[in-house]
Specification:
Length: 374
């Protein structure tokens, strides 16, 4: 007897029922939606359009939003696996294409699965700073995120009648074969998601650091503060340790040069602020240096002025940053000279670096060489 290809009707396990697929899909919509919205917010903060403003307070808001971005992405991984398991028998639907609507549905599923897998896999590699691809991660991750969300919206619209029927009280329970029951499958999915979150959330939630074995980078680096990019990797060691280093401060009235000793002679401010990185890790530290409000006053500029910050690292899109007026007017925004009671070391930005409340770590420019105000 000639073997035949499987058919959708051959998969009778409760885990493949529309009810299970819909419930897992709802959970995935929540986690993936959170991940997309917080990722979009992070993109706007780093590349702000003219209409967008980001406050300096509360100081840990970005820590919360970016931590949510990464944790919700991790939670989406087991949920996506469970969703794919629940619906994969539909691959064996015959005929393969029943109508134009069915073809559109299958196309949306292809775009959804491909883009979602790309986002979650590359995002997971990004938090561990592994980049086995030739492209620059942020813009590609951002663009594919829109593809994923668009395909999700299209898929939900096409599947809404099925989802409503699946969640209706009178919907019959799918027959149970030799596989696990519907409730057992959902409990296993929920447990797996919870374990994944708990195992990694310590990277961004201090209270969970001792119970998160897979946390990344939250306690590495000198003085317990992680370092994403070293001075050696940035190629700034010689320039940063040059005794003739001076900070140039340019205003419409002229240019001022200050040595590190000159900066230390100005009024000093000590603040406790977190470094919150786009990879999701965060760590609070004590920083001492010159508050931008005092520094701008000292050079005859107005606090609240936008300041362009340039680094000794002259290559890459983060070699410069812009401090908005909301941050330069905040007394917690500091040009830091010391970290946790000792002078900055090279990897943490010596001779001086920016530390501002509620800012992504990539915008907390290290090895500062020049400040410009309009």
């Amino acid at each position: 007897m000639k073997p035949r290809l499987p058919r959708e009707s051959d998969f009778r396990g409760a885990a493949h029922s529309p009810r299970v697929a819909t419930r897992v899909g709802l959970a995935l919509a929540v986690t993936f939606g959170l991940c997309f919205l917080t990722g979009l917010l992070s993109h706007l903060i780093q590349h702000p359009p003219h209409w967008f403003t980001w406050p300096s307070r509360p100081v840990s808001l970005y820590r919360l939003t970016q931590g949510t971005h990464v944790i919700s992405g991790i939670a989406s991984i087991p949920l996506l696996a469970a969703k794919l398991w629940s619906v994969y028998p539909e691959l064996f639907t015959r005929p393969a294409l029943r109508s134009a609507t069915h073809a559109l549905e299958r196309l949306s599923v292809l775009a959804l699965v491909g883009s979602a897998l790309f986002e979650l896999v590359t995002g997971l590699l990004n938090v561990t700073q592994n980049y086995p691809w030739p492209f620059f991660f942020p813009p590609v991750h951002y663009a594919v995120g829109w593809i994923a969300v668009g395909s999700i919206i299209l898929h939900v619209g096409l599947k809404l009648p099925v989802a409503r029927a699946a969640l209706a009280p009178e919907h019959p329970v799918a027959p149970v074969g030799t596989t696990v029951s519907r409730r057992a499958f959902l409990r296993t999915t929920a447990t797996s998601t919870g374990v994944a979150v708990l195992a990694t959330a310590g990277a961004t939630i201090p209270a969970l650091r001792h119970v998160s074995p897979l946390k990344w980078r939250s306690d590495q680096g000198s003085r317990g503060l992680p370092v994403n990019r070293t001075a050696t990797a940035a190629g700034v060691v010689a320039a940063a340790t040059d005794p003739d280093w001076r900070l140039e401060i340019s205003t419409p009235a002229g240019t001022t040069s200050l040595s590190r000793a000159g900066l230390a002679a100005l009024p000093q401010t000590t603040v406790d602020l977190p470094i919150a990185c786009v990879e999701g890790w965060s760590r609070t530290a004590t920083w001492t240096g010159v508050a931008f409000t005092d520094l701008l006053h000292a050079i005859g500029a107005r606090p609240g002025s936008e300041v362009r910050v340039s680094s000794l690292e002259t290559t890459g899109i983060y070699s410069t940053s812009v401090l908005p007026g909301t941050h330069t007017a905040d007394p917690l925004t500091v040009l830091a000279l010391d970290l946790n009671g000792a002078p900055l070391d090279l990897d943490h930005g010596y001779p001086c670096r920016v530390i501002a409340p509620n800012r992504p770590g990539v915008l907390q420019t290290k090895w500062v060489s020049r400040l410009e105000t309009a």
